[in-house]
Write a structure and sequence with these properties.
- By secondary structure, the chain is an alpha+beta fold.
- Helix content is 34%, strand content 30%.
- The chain has a 3-stranded antiparallel sheet with strand order 2-1-3, with helices on one face.
- It is elongated and about 50 Å long.
- The N and C termini lie close together (7 Å).
Length: 83
């Protein structure tokens, strides 16, 4: 079995209103040294197979078709073999 750990993040050029709201809230409770906050998504998918090349191809396809908007987001992932 293989676990894919997928990180989907907004591109640097895209405004992150949720991150801005978190930064504002952190300032309100005294964390004034926080300069910026970006909110991302973390997804885990477990595959019932062991072929890392196949899983890599599938994860790219899943991200491109469903998990990440190519206009506003980018993604990267790690594969972990499970015992």
């Amino acid at each position: 079995m293989v676990k894919a750990k997928i990180y989907v993040q907004l591109k640097a050029s895209v405004l992150d209103p949720q991150g801005k709201a978190v930064t504002t809230s952190l300032h309100a409770i005294g964390y004034n040294s926080v300069a910026d906050t970006r909110i991302s998504k973390y997804i885990e998918i477990i595959f019932d197979e062991t072929d890392l090349t196949s899983v890599d191809t599938q994860v790219h396809s899943i991200c491109d078709k469903l998990l990440a908007n190519p206009n506003t987001e980018h993604y990267h992932f790690e594969l972990e073999t499970l015992e």
